[in-house]
Write a structure and sequence with these properties.
This protein is α+β, with helices and mostly antiparallel strands. Helix content is about 35%, strand content about 20%. The protein has two domains: about 120 residues, Creatine Amidinohydrolase, Chain A, domain 1; about 210 residues, Creatine Amidinohydrolase, CATH 3.90.230. The chain is elongated.
Amino acid sequence: MSRINKLIELIDEVNLSSMIITSPANIFYFTGYMGPGFLYIPVDGKIQLYVYPLDYNVAETYCNVKDIEIVKLRLTSGIVDVLRSIAENYRRRVGFDKLEVEQYLRAKEYVEELKPSSELTWKLRMIKEGEEIERIKKAAEITSRCMELASEIIDEGVKESEVKAEILEEMMELGSWGPAAPPIIASGPKSALPHGGPGDRQFQKGDVVVVDISAVYEGYCADMTRTYYVGSNPPEEIQKVYQLVYEAKSLVEEGAKSWLLASSIDEVARSKIASQGYGDYFTHGLGHGIGIEIHEPPRINPVSQEMLQENYVITIEPGIYLPRRFGVRIEDTFMVERDSLIKLTSSPYDFTLY
């Protein structure tokens, strides 16, 4: 059964008459076309992909669903124009995945009920199919090779920007579409900022360096982080924090499997880190789903009520961040199987570089 047919079944189950999809990631998932537009899916009848003139030929080229009619919008068209073109009986209960507030306020004037329905698309997208998994594996391979390159470049006197430039060049040469997010190269005190910070430091002896890389391959992402020490003999506390983060991540890897609550595996890592007095410095969730987008459900955090399932692809990324001093994060991308996790990224965990 095609992805669109599966979505139509879900739309029918919740008594919607149709659904409007606006997220480029969702449009790509259902059609193969990645770009702006509106995908209109009724419970029965003609499925239509509305795109702007600039993107019309692109949509014709990459849309891989034969029965979709591609409709060219005017330059000034919007959600209201799409709704006006829909037969009245399909405007009774209309679901949508994502709308800006202004779009929502305008659209609701043209339908009897406009209902947020992103959970329907996520129900399908969270469970990865074979082709999706193969693309993520390739993205993971590219990401891993870029991380190995980064570990070879980092040295005293080298700038953060130089490492970024080399990573991006390698990524493109290996066939990536580019980074899912800008690479994070955060050294010294900036390593205590989970997403780094502005500026372009030169690495100094004794720096802790957090490197976070995410490559995209044919529309799908992988994500990984390693932490390095510039030098050969880290101070005792830095070594202790690194080992604690590594052990917390390893505990999750050993015990995680399908049909566990995402919050329960977060608790495994969080308890390990808290047991050594660093609980207040683990300031984010343990991980997240990944696929077409770098951050997808399930959210793996202390309050998540989502259950892991087979063929989810997730990240595990515990971290400790000591303000204005240093931070450590280690992250890999995994596929969930029935009784285990399968690691897809593969760069070594060498903390000291020489």
